[in-house]
Design goal:
Blueprint (H helix, E strand, L loop, with lengths): L14 E2 L5 E4 L5 H6 L11 H4 L1 H14 L3 E3 L7 H6 L6 H17 L4 E6 L15 H16 L5 E7 L2 H14 L4 E5 L13 H10 L4 E6 L2 H11 L8 E5 L4 E4 L2 E4 L3 H13 L4 E2 L7 H17 L34 H8 L2 E5 L9 H13 L3 E4 L11 H10 L4 E6 L5 H13 L4 E5 L20 H12 L16 E6 L6 H14 L3 E6 L3 H11 L6 E5 L5 H10 L7 H8 L6 H19 L2 E5 L5 H15 L1
Parallel strand pairs: 2-11, 3-4, 4-5, 5-6, 6-7, 7-8, 8-11, 12-13, 12-19, 13-14, 14-15, 15-16, 16-17, 17-18, 18-19
Antiparallel strand pairs: 1-2, 9-10
Length: 632
Amino acid sequence: MTVQRTAFDEVPSALVDSSGHRTILLDGAMATFLHQVGVPVGTVVERLNVERPEQVRHVHRAYIQAGSTLIQTNTFGANRSVLARSGLDVASVVEFNRSGAKLALEAAGEDAKVLGTVGPALSFASPHIETLSENQLRAVFREQMEALLGEPVFGLILETFAELETMLVALDVARSLTDKPVIANLSPDEVGVTRDGYPLAEALGHLHTAGAAAVGLNCKLGPNGILRSYEQMQRLPDILYTAVPNAGILQLEESEYSYKGNASYFAATLAQMHRLGVQLLGGCCGTTPQHIAALRDVLKTECRDGGPALPSVGAVSPAHETNSLVTVKNAADRTETPSGLLQRVQRETTVIVELDPPKTLQVHRFLQGAKALSAAGADYITLADNSLGSIRISNMAMAALLKQSGVEPLVHVTCRDRNLIGQQSHLMGLHALGVHHVLLVTGDPSRFGDLPGATSVYDVSSIELTKMVKRLNAGIGFSGVAMDPPANFVVGTSFNPHVRHLDKALERLRRKIEAGADFVMTQPVFEERLVERLALATKEYGVPVFVGVMPLVSWRNASFLHHEVPGIQIPEHVLNRMANCSPDRATDEGMAIAKATIDEIRDHFRGVYLVTPFLRYSLTVELTTYIKGQQA
């Protein structure tokens, strides 16, 4: 049974363009918004339907005032499987769902319609830990849906399902219970494919055929990832599509989780989806009424003018300004490990180039790029260790291949993936391969990456690991047992200057250096003024600093990096330069910005750290040649 597009004609909408096409605004996040206004992280927010109903009702009204005309009940995790994992009595299922539906209906009044929200019964992060049979899954979904449909909701929304097969089970249960509209939103881990391997266009087609009134994507991929998915997907005219992304990518800063991406960026990116024909738009984790209001305003402009609004780079918060720049003297008992890198950077400008290991077993292009960079004069090729939790070929293996090719590797080592036994073993393996240069990083939590249910180890922090690697250099293993001969590692540490409190970040950097870090590599910077501030802040640290540079390749690339990638901030004037540049000139503009930044770096530092975008090594080859040519 296929429900027709007209199912949503009852939903009020002020967003109607000159051709009569209607766009419907859903609401934004419930749980993360409640956390922002004081509800502790870890609270089962569905309990608030009973214990603090006014707070939930207030969130609903805030979204309606922002422009939402189709709101969701606060019942995402109100099924017996999820509640049991939280230690709650499964008898709460009916109470939480009926109360959630009543609250949303009271808040909506005549201004909006209400969808009963159903999340996956299996853990989104770790579905492999579940042992529910299909019949058990059906029973879990049926219990929750019957409770929601016991109130006069407009329909149901099934959201954040990573796998098509589980979604089809939930949709079949819904269709057996009601002929009301059902929205089915998948939440894949990767652009273009579900977790169980179905191409997205095919998966959404299956859901449409199975009776979903609207189909689409929500949550994890963020605005840019969902936009890319729709751009790559062949869309059919008889299907009503939805887009409900997170505000951005989840990040951890100063022990607090947040979503990077402001309301203007969110609205501008969803407006691009609207131009692709996506007609149901809203927000997931990290979004607020401000995000929905910004989206409403952009879409009103488009509908009124009968055409797309101009792209917006979004409101850019200025870099955190502080006069509290920390300077420290090098530890008196510090001994410098003999090293080609440390010696070279004292004499001349030294270039480190990051080239990410492949995500597949195809290594030819990576090795080709590494050789081209080395031929251009790159001193070291640095390899990340599954950054952002994205699975790639072991950087130890790729480093060994580089050594065989005569290219010197600098390997990242993260605290996330190995306990201390594996960590020392890994380091000893690197040393045996002749890899002596390492960058020690704490690492992004697994929940950010390809396998959000994978365990993040974190036996130690990067500061503690630095001390332990220095002990290896002194001939002492992690357990205290003597190790003969001693290791000869040269230890790097990372620094992110794009933080709210630069003084705190500098204090942490000081502690890393006191722990024994031999050199520093920064996140990419995009303006000369920040380079000068870094020089002032780090001049007394006594170690070489390699300042990061990443060439921008398009306005969209710049906007994505600024709004969604943790640890990167691009100043407004640079974003505007990229926004105002024609697409065929964008890469040249990005290279010009990178070269200007490099010129400023060379006025203050002898170390440059180039980050290769999308394995487009020709760009970092050109920048390496530019640096080395200036030096000649």
